[in-house]
Amino acid sequence: MPTPSAARRGLAIGAGLLLAAGLLTSCSSDEGDGTDLVAQAQEVQYRTELAQQQEIERRAANLPTRPAGTVVIDGNTDSSLTRDLTSAYVADGTVTTVDVGHSGEDEAFQRLCAGEIDLVDSSRAISRSEWEACRAVGLDVVQFQVAADAVVVAIKSESDVGGDCLTTQQVQDIYRAGSPVTNWAQVGLDEVPLSVAGPDTQNKAFDFFGRTVLDAQQPSLVNLRSDYRALDSDRGSRTFVVGSARDERIAGTNADRQRVREQLRSEVAAQRQVVDDARDEVEAATAEVTKGVRDQRPAADQARDQQRLDKANAAYQAARTKLVTLKASWTRAKRAADGSAAALKRYEATRGHLSYFRFSYYELFEEQLRPFEITLPDGQRNCVFPSQRTIVSGQYPLSQQLLLTTTTRSLDRDDVSGLLEFTLSHAVQEAEDARLVPLPDAQVNQQLAVVRGEQAPTLVVPEEDKAAVESTKDAEPVDEPAQ
Question: Does the UniProt entry include the keyword Coiled coil (predicted)?
Answer without folding.
Answer: yes
